[in-house]
């Protein structure tokens, strides 16, 4: 099994990863823009195919991805997953019909309601609380659907004829031209500072830097990734001003990060934390018994070099100081024998930050953790024993965390990859 997806603002990425987690923990989720995505699909018979609905239709890039790999789909079993802000009629059916034309066997269709990603139009904007409720309901739907699939019952969202009529009359008929071709309507205002972030994240490579400012080409698939990420809010597409930037990961992380620092006396707790970035000073356990202390001394004395990259909460407080760990292969597996591996003494940073000279950037995958306040030298071995006694396996390397507000230290034990 393999997952392939397009996701502008993280909704479809979250949904496909969650579904794969319940169906096959070894299955990869591959973004459509990854150069070898088509090649990877060749080796799998069962494909989960996820994307956002655009104007009750599939995004142009998704249509092109299917069409340009016509020979790949024959006899593949495909489950189409469409995420949407409100309504699509036959969002899953649109891709299903095209895939079927090229020989795929459509095993099901799944529609998932997620927060709206169009951040420059007021229409469907929900409050953070409303968005969280939508995400929680989506998670429940995915869980239920996975349970059905494990029992051989596949969802049929968007695959019936009346869904097609609903999709057509609902929007597609009126907005068909919007998804007929790539868009050349992206607007970049003078607020652009030329940071280059948008040029790095666009799945269509539609943005370039020209004379220190971003410039848009004519191949925008309207995913809203650059618009939702631009630090200067300089990019718009359907509307004229950015109202509130939306990113699934950023939104959910913010909630988790808050819990973390407000945790006070919590001694043992579970927490889901999406993938995050740490920039710090890296060392190896073979550097001597005091290598971790030396890394912290180095990091603390040069902290000014990375302070501006650190992630902050709404009050301007730094979110987290991490002693992150990984095995030597950098797969974030536990240290060999719990005493040999890599250590990164650093600060949690914005995901798009680059490490300055002399610093190293790690992107730590998303996990569910048990986190425990570090009371003494025995905390680590006590928790390992607790995990063993409760038949819980460690899913990755343990990390140290220090809450900058309270100064309290915690250990994070990953127990499940997200
Ligand atoms: C250009 C555009 C058009 C959209 N049209 C629809 C639509 O017709 N119906 C709907 O329910 N949601 C629509 N949405 C909302 C997205 O489908 C929804 O927020 C989706 O979950 C975003 O997924 P992503 O974060 O993976 O890109 C649209 C979003 C964009 C950017
Ligand atoms: S992300 Fe925004 S500020 Fe940075 S180059 Fe792009 S448009 Fe300009
Ligand atoms: S230009 Fe922006 S909205 Fe258009 S495809 Fe690229 S990242 Fe998405």
Describe the structure concisely:
With 418 residues, the chain is of the alpha+beta class. It is built from 11 helices and 17 strands.
Task: Walk me through the structure.
The protein is an alpha+beta fold. The protein has 3 domains: about 180 residues, Rossmann fold (3-Layer(aba) Sandwich); about 50 residues, Alpha-Beta Plaits, CATH 3.30.70; about 170 residues, Alpha-Beta Barrel (Multidrug-efflux Transporter 1 Regulator Bmrr, Chain A), CATH 3.20.80. The chain is about 30% helix and about 25% strand. It has 11 helices and 17 strands. The strands form 4 sheets. It has an 8-stranded antiparallel sheet with strand order 10-15-17-16-12-13-11-14. Strands 2-1-3-4-5 form a 5-stranded parallel sheet, with helices on both faces. Helix 4 links the parallel strand 4 and strand 5. Helix 1 runs parallel beside helix 5. It is globular and about 65 Å long. The relative contact order is 0.10. About 5% of the residues have low confidence. The structure holds flavin mononucleotide and iron/sulfur cluster (2 copies). The site of one iron/sulfur cluster (SF4) has 14 residues, from helix 7.
């Amino acid at each position: 099994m393999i997952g392939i997806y397009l996701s502008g603002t993280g909704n479809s990425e979250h949904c496909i990863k969650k579904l794969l987690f319940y169906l096959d923990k070894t299955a990869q989720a591959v973004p459509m823009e990854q150069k070898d995505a088509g090649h990877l699909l060749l080796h799998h018979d069962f494909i989960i195919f996820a994307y956002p609905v655009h104007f009750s239709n599939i995004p142009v890039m998704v249509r092109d991805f299917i069409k340009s790999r016509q020979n790949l789909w024959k006899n593949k079993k495909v489950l189409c997953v469409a995420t949407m802000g409100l309504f699509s009629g036959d969002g899953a059916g649109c891709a299903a019909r095209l895939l079927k034309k090229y020989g795929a066997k459509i095993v099901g269709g799944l529609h998932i309601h997620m927060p709206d990603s169009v951040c420059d139009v007021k229409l469907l904007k929900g409050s953070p609380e409303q968005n969280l409720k939508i995400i929680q309901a989506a998670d429940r739907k995915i869980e239920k659907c996975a349970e059905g699939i494990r029992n051989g019952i596949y969802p049929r969202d968007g695959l019936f004829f009346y869904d097609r009529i609903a999709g057509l009359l609902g929007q597609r008929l009126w907005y068909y031209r919007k998804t007929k071709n790539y868009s050349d309507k992206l607007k970049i205002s003078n607020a652009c500072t030329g940071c280059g972030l948008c040029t790095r994240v666009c799945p269509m490579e539609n943005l370039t830097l020209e004379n220190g400012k971003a410039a848009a080409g004519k191949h925008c698939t309207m995913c809203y990734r650059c618009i939702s990420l631009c630090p200067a809010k300089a990019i718009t597409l359907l509307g004229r001003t950015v109202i509130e930037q939306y990113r699934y990961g950023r939104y959910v992380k913010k909630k988790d990060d808050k819990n973390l620092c407000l945790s006070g006396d919590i001694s043992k707790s579970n927490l889901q934390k999406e993938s995050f970035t740490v920039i710090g000073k890296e060392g190896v356990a073979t550097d001597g018994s005091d290598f971790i202390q030396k890394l912290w001394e180095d990091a603390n004395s040069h902290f000014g070099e990375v302070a501006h990259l650190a992630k902050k909460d709404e009050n301007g407080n730094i979110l987290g100081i991490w002693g992150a760990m990984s095995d030597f292969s950098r797969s974030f597996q536990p240290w060999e024998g719990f005493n040999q591996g890599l250590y990164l003494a650093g600060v949690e940073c914005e995901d798009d930050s680059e490490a300055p000279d002399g610093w190293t950037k790690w992107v730590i995958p998303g996990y569910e953790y048990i986190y425990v306040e570090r009371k003494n030298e025995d905390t680590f071995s006590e928790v390992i024993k607790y995990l063993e006694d409760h038949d819980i396996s460690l899913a990755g390397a343990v990390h140290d965390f220090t809450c900058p507000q309270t100064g309290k230290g915690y250990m994070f034990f990953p127990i499940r990859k997200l």
